[in-house]
Amino acid sequence: MKIIIDAMGGDHAPEVVIEGAVAAVKEYGVDIILTGDETRIKGLLARKHYTGDKITIHPTTEIIGMSEPAAVSVRKKRHSSISVGLNLLKENGQGAFFSAGNTGAVVCAATLTLGLLPGVERPGIAIVCPTLKEVSLMVDVGANIDAKPLHILQYAAMADAYSRSVLNKVKPTIGLLNIGEEATKGTDFVKETYNLLSQSNINFIGNIEGKDLFAGKCDIILCDGFVGNIALKVSEGVAALIYGLIKTEFTATFMSMVAAFLLRSNLKRIRKAMDYSEYGGAPLLGVNGIVIIGHGRSSSKAIKNAIRVAKEEVERNVNAGMLDTLSKLKVPSQQA
Amino acid sequence: MKIIIDAMGGDHAPEVVIEGAVAAVKEYGVDIILTGDETRIKGLLARKHYTGDKITIHPTTEIIGMSEPAAVSVRKKRHSSISVGLNLLKENGQGAFFSAGNTGAVVCAATLTLGLLPGVERPGIAIVCPTLKEVSLMVDVGANIDAKPLHILQYAAMADAYSRSVLNKVKPTIGLLNIGEEATKGTDFVKETYNLLSQSNINFIGNIEGKDLFAGKCDIILCDGFVGNIALKVSEGVAALIYGLIKTEFTATFMSMVAAFLLRSNLKRIRKAMDYSEYGGAPLLGVNGIVIIGHGRSSSKAIKNAIRVAKEEVERNVNAGMLDTLSKLKVPSQQA
Predict the structure, then answer these.
(1) Which residue in A9, A60, A61 sits closest to A35, CA to CA?
(2) Contact present, B137 and B159 (Cβ < 8 Å)
(3) A contacts of B67 (beta carbons < 8 Å)
(4) What is the Cα–Cα distance from B155 to B322, expressed in whole angstroms?
(5) Interface test with B, best of A131, A211, A254 (most B CBs within 10 A)
(6) Partner of B178 for a Cys bridge, out of A305, A318, B186, B276, CB 3.0 to 4.6 A?
(7) B221 CB contacts (<8 Å, ≥6 apart)?
(8) How far is CA A120 from CA A140, A148, A155, A323, B63, in A?
(9) Residue A49 zone, left/alpha/beta (φ > 0; ψ -120 to 50; rest)
(10) Higher pLDDT residue, A333 or B328?
(11) pLDDT at A279
C-alpha cells in the first residue's frame, strides 16, 4: 500500500509535511510517495536524516496556492503536486492520497481525476469532532456549498459506512443540523432534507441543534457545506477565545502561574481532546479513491495522524463499505 | 419610562423573571410592568419581600409555550403575556418590552403589533458577542430564516446605529460572515449580499470567516438568521464542551483540585467574559419600539442585565438613531 502525499500543500509546506511523513514511516511503517519540488524535498529529507527506501519522490513542477480559485487552477496547472498525486492514485488503483493544500482544488481535482462512486452526485468533506461522549462525524464541512437534499442523503449513507468501518461504531445515529428540533424548523432546504432523510432507510434520529453539536447526541451530523464550514470554523474561534482568556488569566499573578503549572498536564489533556490534529485529516467522501484533506495549518503531528487515518481507511476498505450502503440506500421516489 | 416584562417567558419563568425584575428595580430604579398570571406573580413578589410601587402587574390569561409554533400561537392567543405586553408598549408610545419566552412568537407578535421602522422589511435579532478585543454585534441570529440580501443591508444600517449609540463605538466596522475572505466565496446569496454591501454607503470591510467571529476583527458581523443561529448555538456548545473538560480535569486529583481552588477567581472571570447573561438580552432590530429578547435559559442575572440594556436603549433613543441611518442608507439601484 502506498500513501501519496502532496508535499507542497499547507501553510507550512513542505517542511511540516516532510516532517510528518518521516514520523509516519517510522511509526506506522507505511510506504510514501511525495509529490512536489524534488530539490526541496530531498534537502528536507536529508535534514531529517532520512535515508530509507520507504519514501520516494515523484517530482512535480507546479504548485496550487492556498487561496487560488479552485476550478481555474486545477484546469490550468495540470502538473501540480495535487493533480499529479491524484493521477498516481488512480494509476495505482489502491492506496490513498493526502493533501493539506488548497481544499477546493483537492475536491475539484479528486472529482475530475477519480470520478465519483456510483450513487453519489457530489463529494463531501467529513470531519471527526470531539464531543462530551464519543467522537462524532460531521459532513459536509465545505465541499458542497450549493447542496441539494439528495446530496445530504448520500452523505448519510457514506458517513454511516465510514463510522462503522473507521470509527468502530455499531449502529451510528444520524442527525441533521438545524435551528430547532421540530421537523417544521429551518429553511425550505433543511425541511426538504429532513423529509427525505426520514423517508429513507437510514438511522435518522431527527434535527440536532448547534448547541448539541459537541454534546455527543448522535454519531453523524449532516449539513450543507456552507453551514458546516461556518460551524467548524466558529468552533475553532470559540476555542481560541477561551484559550486566550485562560492564558491571560493563568499568567496574571505569581499565584495563578504556580497553580497553572500544577495543572499543566490537565491543561494539556484538555487541549489534546479539542485538538483537530489528534484526529488526523478529513476524509473526502464520495470520490472513487481514498482522499484525505488536511487543515491548511496542519502541524507535522496532524500530517502524521492523517497518514495513520489514510492507512486505516485503506486497510478497512472503507470505500467498499460505502459502495455497499449506497447500493442499499432507499431514495424516496419523488427524489429519484 | 416603563419597562414591560413578559413574566411568563423563559424556561424558568415566572420565578427567575420576577427575581430579575426585583433586582433591576433595586439596582437601576426602573419602573416595571409585569404581564402574566397575577396570582403567581403576586405570590413571587411577596416571597421576594417586594412591597414597593415600582412594579405593577398587568394580568394576562394566556401563555405561549416555548416550543409552540410562533405564528399560529400569536394568532390564536391574543391574550398572551407576550401580545398583551407588546400592545401596552404600543399604547405607552415609549419604554421597552422584554421577554425570555418563545423567540419566534416575540418576533412575530412584535412585528404585527408595533410594525416595522420605515426602510426595514424584516426584523433581525442582534447579539453582543465577547471577542479577544472589544465586544462585537452579530445580526441576525434567528429572526429571519429566509433572508434576502437587502434585509442584510438594512441590518447593517441598524447595527451601525445600535453600536454607536449603545456600545459606544465611534465608526463601527462591518463584516459579512462567510466561508472565506474573497468576494467570490460562498453561496449565491452571500455573494449577492457582498456586492450589495460593498456598493452601499456603509463601513463594510468584507467577509469574515467563522474562526474570526470571536477575534474582534470587526464591530458588526452580518449573516442570515439560519447561519447566525447555528453559529451562536455552536459557540455555546463548544464553550460547554471545554468547561466540561475543565471540570473533569480540574477535579481529577487532589493536586488539581487545590490548584483549581487557587485559580477560582481567574476561572470565574473567564466564565464571566464568555457568559451571555452578562451582556443582557438580544435587541430585536427593526420593529417600531424597543424590544429585547432573552435566552430561554435566562437566569435572574440575565433578566436583570437585559432590563439594564432596555433602559439604556430607551435613554439613548436607539430607534431614532436607526431611523437616521436607515434614511441615509444608499440602496444600490438594482435592489431598490
Answers:
(1) A60
(2) yes
(3) 180, 182
(4) 10
(5) A211
(6) B186
(7) B129, B136, B137, B138, B139, B175, B176, B177, B208, B213
(8) 14, 12, 8, 10, 48
(9) left
(10) B328
(11) 73
The band of A37, judged by pLDDT with boundaries at 50, 70 and 90, is very high
Specify the pLDDT at position A330: 94
Over residues B58-75, mean pLDDT: 93
Find the helix or strand (DSSP H, E) in which B145 lies.
none
Residues of A whose CB is below 8 A from B235: 210, 234-235, 237-238
Mutate to test the interface with A, among B230, B243, B246, B250 (most CBs of A within 10 A): B230
Cell readout for A329 is: 440506500
Q: Which residues, listed in sequence order, are joined to residue B80 by a DSSP beta bridge?
A: B62
Taking the C-alpha atoms of residue B267 and residue B261, their distance in angstroms, rounded to an integer, is 9
Beta bridge partner(s), residue B32: B3, B55
- Do A23 and A5 meet the contact criterion of CB atoms below 8 Å apart? no
Which residues, in sequence order, are bridge partners of residue A204? A174
Spell out where chain B has E strands.
2-6, 31-36, 55-59, 96-99, 124-129, 136-139, 174-178, 204-209, 220-222, 282-285, 290-293
Q: Answer whether B252 sits within 8 Å of A266, measured CB to CB.
A: yes
Supply the DSSP symbol for B171: S
Tell me how many residue pairs between chain A and chain B have CB atoms under 8 A apart: 181
Between chains, do A145 and B240 touch, taking CB under 8 Å as contact?
Answer: no
A96: β partners: A3, A290
Give yes or no for residue A335 having a pLDDT over 70.
Answer: no
CA-based nearest distance B167→chain A, Å: 20
For residue B311 the three cell numbers come to 433602559
* Cβ A33 vs Cβ A56: under 8 Å: yes
**Distance, CA of B258 to CA of B251 (rounded, Å):** 9
For residue B273, give the nearest of A180, A245, A259 by CB distance. Answer: A245
Across chain A, mean pLDDT equals 93
Residue B118 makes CB contacts below 8 A (sequence gap 6+) with B323, B326, B327
Q: How far apart are CA A44 and CA A36, in angstroms?
A: 12
Question: Which residue do the cell numbers 476524509 mark?
Answer: A283
Single-letter residue type at A254: F
Which one of A263, A267, A275 makes the best mutation probe of the B interface by having the most chain B beta carbons within 10 Å?
A: A263
Give DSSP secondary structure letters for B38-68. HHHHHHHHHHTT---SSEEEEE--B---TTS
**pLDDT at residue A336 greater than cutoff 60:** no
Q: Which of A145, A233, A241 sits opposite B186 (nearest CB)?
A: A145
Residues of B in contact with A233 (CB under 8 A): 179, 209-211, 213
CB atoms B259 and A262 under 8 Å? yes
Name which of A184, A238, A273 is nearest B214 (Cβ-Cβ): A238
Question: C-alpha grid cell for residue A199?
Answer: 423517508
Pairing state between β A290-293 and A282-285: antiparallel
Which cell numbers in the block locate residue B169? 463605538
B27: amino acid identity, one letter: E
